Amino acid sequence: MSNETDGGIQIEYGVDDKPPLPKSILLGLQHVAVMIVPATAVAYVVANGVGLEADAAYLVQMVLLFSGLATMVQAYTVGPVGARLPIVMGSSFTFVGATIDIGASFGLAAVFGAILVTGFVVEGLIGWQFKRIKPFFPPLVTGLVVVIIGLYLIPVAMDYVAGGTAAEAAGTFGGLQHLGLAALVLAIAVGLNMFTRGVTRLLSVLVAIVVGYAAAIALTFATGLEIVDFGPVGEAAWIALPSPTRFGFEFEPIAIATFAVLFLVSSMETVGDMSGVTAAEGRNPTDEEFRGGLFNDGLLSSIGSIFGAFPITSFSQNVGIVNFTGVMSRHVVGIGGVFLAVLGLSPKVGAAVTTIPSAVFGGAVLLMAGMVAASGFRLIVTHVELDRRNTVIVAVSLGLGLGIATTPEALAGLPSRAELFFGQPVIATALSALALNTFVPGDSSPLFDAAPVATDASADSETPAAGPSDD
């Protein structure tokens, strides 16, 4: 049922609403369609980076399987694990750099050993104690994390728009055929969302991807260009089951310390994504939602490492879909999780999906990245007074994040580990926002009280009370 929330957007289906099954299936497929390329790209990038190209297909399979399982748990919960929110889970690029570095130096056994230990320990501890640390993550901090996640995804989307790695290898990066396909998808998605109603608007992104894929196939046959390659479909097996401890486990202190910090940042991303989803309703997540969502991140990441899956966290592109379509139903996302798990058990089906050209996904991901950033801005504008203090925090945090994103070579003088750590735009924005908001006096600082509620003549006073917070 459609309704306009206070400070949010027009909601077509609420969190607990169940759209008709045919519509739910299509909406779930839309979520899968938007996240499958970036999710599987993590496995391909890592496999190539550590010299294990032969295992790339298996790594992709595990990413899809555990993305699906974690998505279903997020939507429906298992005990205290899960948030009951429409959040799609997948492998995050936050961990890619460290995974390649550690994998090349110590092997994937050290990577999966570190994930096994730090996944549930770090995010589980944060989730367990989130009520106590919640004051450190006000809308100002979480909103900035959402903003930088969206803005940081835009260059990735533009890389897809230009054709991605396949186009680079073929020497056609930025070719008119790729730009045309991306523009077609973007135009259809925006046009259907802005100028139509009902199911057509709700499925605007999926329809755009389908039309773009059909156009890419037609262009392949018409021009002879290898825009769509069906070769991998014939080579893939129909069914392949996961293999526990395939890569083994080693427990390297450097790897464990690195992934502990990255899981802290990942938890901030998840907090930001959950805030981005509930911002559609004009609210922040509850303590229980935060706790369950973080438990899900950590526990499923640790379990997945046993089978060779990389860390699983919330996917920002799909936060954009929720805000773009107004469909907040967790049941829709749960159906999307089922599809992902099935894809993870059937490499042939997964191979068929990944034949969709990067440019087709580029048009959709570009739109979703912009929507993620916009939802972060809305979270800040709705819940934060942009006075001098808060404006400076926004300026510094986004300035550092975007500066590192656009000029990563500026940190070349740092030690390699420090360059890897501080060279992450999300880390730079999140930590700077967290530190400034914590230590600069103001209403949202957890170390200082908000201005007291006036009850008498002192009502005209604007001087806030300082001291330890009672929250």
Automatic annotation (TrEMBL):
Pfam families assigned: Xan_ur_permease
Any GO MF annotation of the entry: xanthine transmembrane transporter activity
Record field: transmembrane: 25-46, 58-82, 102-128, 140-158, 178-195, 202-227, 332-353, 359-380, 392-414
Subcellular location: Membrane
NCBIfam families in alphabetical order: ncs2 (TIGR00801)
Record-stated family: Belongs to the nucleobase:cation symporter-2 (NCS2) (TC 2.A.40) family.
UniProt-listed InterPro entries: NCS2, Xan_ur_permease
Protein name: Uracil-xanthine permease
A Gene Ontology cellular-component term: plasma membrane
Keyword annotations: Membrane, Transmembrane, Transmembrane helix, Transport
Domain of life: Archaea
Record bears the keyword Transmembrane: yes
Residue segments, region Disordered: 451-471
Membrane topology, from the record: Multi-pass membrane protein
